[in-house]
Amino acid sequence: MNVVLSRDGQVRAMETTVVSAEKHFGQLCSLLAAHTRKTARLRDAGDRLVKQLIALASSETPELRATLQDVAEDLAKVQDYRQAQAEIKKFKRVQSNEIKQLERLEKLRQKSPSDRQVISQ
């Protein structure tokens, strides 16, 4: 009888964990999607600015043309850097969430080593 009650408690705890994870991961995915769209719009605006600077440079004197092209190249580098920075931030967030999930799973395993098959599912 005691084993059944213990197993029921474990099942309820796992169900609660799953429900919580579904809720929070759904919200996290929505926020990440919104952030990605905003970042993409910013990147698009920067790319348009670079193209406009290059177009303007083509109609200017050689000295100004060289300067405008340098500014356009530097702005493109900043855009690339921002993109890389955003990607790193996203990967770190995903990695952190995975580590937390693995830590929770390990705690469940330590509490109940005999239920490895149930926990692994």
Automatic annotation (TrEMBL):
Q: Provide a GO biological process annotation.
A: cilium assembly
Could you tell me the superkingdom of the organism this chain comes from?
A: Eukaryota
GO CC annotation = ciliary basal body; ciliary transition zone
Instruction: List the InterPro entries hit by this protein, alphabetically.
Output: CBAR/FAM92
Know the name of this protein?
CBY1 interacting BAR domain containing 2
Q: Which organism is it from?
A: Chinchilla lanigera (Long-tailed chinchilla)
